[in-house]
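Continuing the batch. This is chain 6 of the set; chains 1 through 5 are on the previous pages. Same settings as before, nothing changed between runs. Recording input and output for traceability.
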Amino acid sequence: MLVSDIIYIIMKKRAKKMVKKNFTEGKIFTPMLLFVLPIMLTNVLQTLYNIADNVVVGKFSGDPLALAAVGTSGSLSALFLNIVVGLSIGSSVTISHAFGAKKYDEVSKSVHTALSFGGIFGTVLAIFAIIFAEDMLVLTGTSPEILGRATLYLRIIFAALPATAIYNFSAAALRAVGDSKTSLYILTASGLLNIVLNIVFVTAFDMSVDGVALATAISKYASAIAVVAVLLKRRGECYALSFGKLRISMPVLKKMLRFGLPNSIQNSMFSISNVLITGAINSLPTYVLSARTIATNLNNLANNASSSYMNAMITFAGQNFGAKKYQRIKKSLLICLLQSITVTLFLGVAGFLFIEPISSLYIASNDPLRLLIIEEARSIGFVTLPLYFISSIMNAVSGALRGMGYSLPPMIASLIGTCGFRTLWIYTAFAHFPSLHSAQGLYISYPISWALVIIGLVPILAIALKRLSRTDSDNVLKECEVK
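Output for chain 6:
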């Protein structure tokens, strides 16, 4: 409980101001920026902590294959994480609708259903993932020389899936009522714990991939304990947690799954395509795996900013949908697009410009493949980092649709535009054109797939907004008739 106590002390003086925010009234630009910044910092910190994991294992473990083992495990780890995150978005939409409509009893019931389901689902998922970790790595074509290390790393990471589920469902509930700062405080504390444990396990106890994995798992459980403690201490709020109320309400769960399951499938499609990319990368020299790990960490910085605005759009659209203030959804989306494109463009360009010195942090100075790894990381970054603003458009539109309760269209668009296209690309362009048979040739499929998803989603968004405008007009006419 030490982490949660520290967080509680930090938050205590500001608790009344940050308990909940109603985004159905007032200005949008500044409140959105203030709401999204903690989410963005949370995600960026998470990426920085992952970078720290890779730096520690790459430079200090003394194992030249450790960084490649962690890198090849990343796509599978992300797959299971995205399954959990996708389902938690369903709870966020459900809670934000109830909160916007001021149905506070339903908010409470939704929070307790989300936490109950999250704990059970995370445990079942962990058991499955641990059992089949090695089989999944083999299916992705993981090299026999790093298979043992990668399996060990994944199994330790998967053991923390129950904590991951509880944290994400809790954080989603807090974001739904306008509190995006708590998760930032929690991740800051648990992330620092992760870094300290990384250094201790790898340098003091002479551990390798098992050390960084164990540090990550411990920090995830610390995060789960902390966020549960925060919800318990929010007594008097409609979203406060009470162990005595923990149970699953089937009507609420059905609603959460209706919103969340398509999102989970959509997120999984991105991860499955990344798993396929990993399988293709595994056919290239081992040093490319290390370069891919570095480039992926930098890509995640831009991607996290993009996904942060998606989460913000879900909350803004969800609350205003519940309050039946449909015009504010349109205004929120325009502001979200403006802000997210600006931020992701800046981060993407900056990441590419500094990719060489950043890459040097990962690699021991005496590594004979040092220059090859840096050059390969630069080639991947060239076709992804400056173009991440396209992803921000995709995520903002997807967030608006999700917030309004349209979960199937983003899922279908992702199935076709992301998983479908990238799979086709791997088995055609990458496999049969020598000029594209490289890491750069694989990753050029990313911005193309984002653009394809946008092309699929924009007409659906236009139809959804038109329907809401018609509903809004009908409601105004009814009010006039009553008067």
